[in-house]
Design a protein that fits this description.
223 residues, alpha/beta, Rossmann fold, five-stranded parallel β-sheet, ligase, ATP-binding
């Protein structure tokens, strides 16, 4: 019996690798992206194109407006995206984003009778986000066990985090081994409408360093 999996896909480097890894394991993949009021909308086009490139991946976009609560440089246009490293939790952290995203992914997984949810959280190059840590994933896995029909009936849905302990360069190497075309991905926090990166935000710096450390030519399109 084929294993169904919901894959959280932003259109960025990590989630493209995540989808490739799940697909290579013969998962029946359901790609899920969010139009959440983010300033870097080009990533949604990237996510759609990446999913379509497989030919057998179902892709869905859920719209919700996290800009209504703001509190992040990614959802509040009055907060500038920083161009220098920050101490502590940066202003690009979106309050409760992964908690919200996983809740919707969990709902879809229940409807599909999927047994896995893949999320590309990373505890190495995680930019200080609290909802990318192993502690968060463990807590959410416990929640799944008590908050879902599947969990109550003894067939819980497993959170899969294959990137959580990998460096950015290791993620890139894994992706290349699985045939990921990183030129299709958009990681920049403030990419333009064509998906071209700024080259100076935290995400751009981490991405560029990853390609350099991996000894791979950076295919990112910069404006």
């Amino acid at each position: 019996m084929t294993t169904k999996a919901v894959i959280l896909t932003s259109g960025g480097l990590d989630s493209a690798t995540l989808l490739a890894m799940a697909h290579s394991q013969s998962r029946e993949c359901y790609s899920l992206s969010f139009d959440y009021g983010q300033r870097h909308r080009a990533e949604l086009n990237a996510a759609k194109a990446i999913a379509a490139s497989y030919g057998d991946v179902v892709h869905r976009v859920i719209s919700l407006d996290l800009s209504a609560i703001g509190g992040s440089a990614l959802t509040d246009m009055d907060i500038d995206v920083p161009t220098t490293p920050q101490e502590g939790i940066p202003v690009t952290y979106v309050p409760a984003r992964n908690t919200v995203f996983l809740s919707l992914a969990l709902g879809w997984a229940e409807v599909l009778e999927a047994t896995e949810i893949y999320i590309g959280v990373n505890a190495v190059d995680y930019s200080g986000y609290p909802d990318c840590r192993p502690e968060f994933i463990a807590a959410y896995q416990n929640l799944i066990g008590v908050a879902t029909k599947a969990g109550v009936e003894g067939a819980s849905i497993e959170l899969k985090t294959p990137l959580i302990h990998l460096s950015k360069s290791d993620i890139i190497r894994r992706g290349i081994a699985h045939g990921v075309d990183y030129a299709m991905t958009v990681s920049c926090y403030q990419a333009d409408e064509q998906g071209r990166a700024c080259g100076v935000c935290d995400s751009c710096r981490i991405r560029a360093a990853g390609f350099s450390d991996a000894g791979v030519v950076d295919p990112t399109r910069y404006r």
